[in-house]
C-alpha cells in the first residue's frame, strides 16, 4: 500500500504541474503540496512497516 501511495503521488505531482486552472497557495499549487505530503507519508509508512516484525515467529502467546 505504501509503494502505491508513493507512486501515485509522484505521478499526480507531475500531472498537476500541467494543469492551468489550479488552486494556488502563494506560488505553489495546492494539489502539488498535497502530493508532496502524500509522498512523505508513503515513505514514512514504508519505513514503519519495513521495520515492524510480523509473522508467527514474532507473535506473543
Outline:
This protein is mostly helical. Helices cover 64% and strands 7% of the residues. The longest helix has 22 residues, at 30-51.
3D architecture notes:
Strand 1 and strand 2 (28-29) form a beta hairpin. The mean pLDDT is 87. Helix content is 64%, strand content 7%. It has a two-stranded antiparallel ribbon with strand order 1-2. It has one domain. It is mainly α and 61 residues long. The chain contains 2 helices and 2 strands. It has helices at 2-18, 30-51; strands at residues 24-25, 28-29.
Shape: elongated
The structural domain count equals: 1
Helix and strand element order = HEEH
- Rg over alpha carbons: 17 Å
Tally of contiguous helical segments: 2
Total E-strand runs: 2
Strand order of the largest sheet: 1-2
Distance between the termini: 28 Å
Structural class: mainly alpha
**Low-pLDDT residue spans:** none
Strand percentage: 5-15%
Mean pLDDT rating: 87
Biggest beta sheet attributes? 2 strands, antiparallel
- Helical residues, percent: 55-70%
Topology record:
Layout: H1 2-18, E1 24-25, E2 28-29, H2 30-51
Antiparallel strand pairs: 1-2
Helix pairs in contact: 1-2
Characteristic key phrases:
61 residues; mainly alpha; two-stranded antiparallel ribbon; 2 helices; elongated
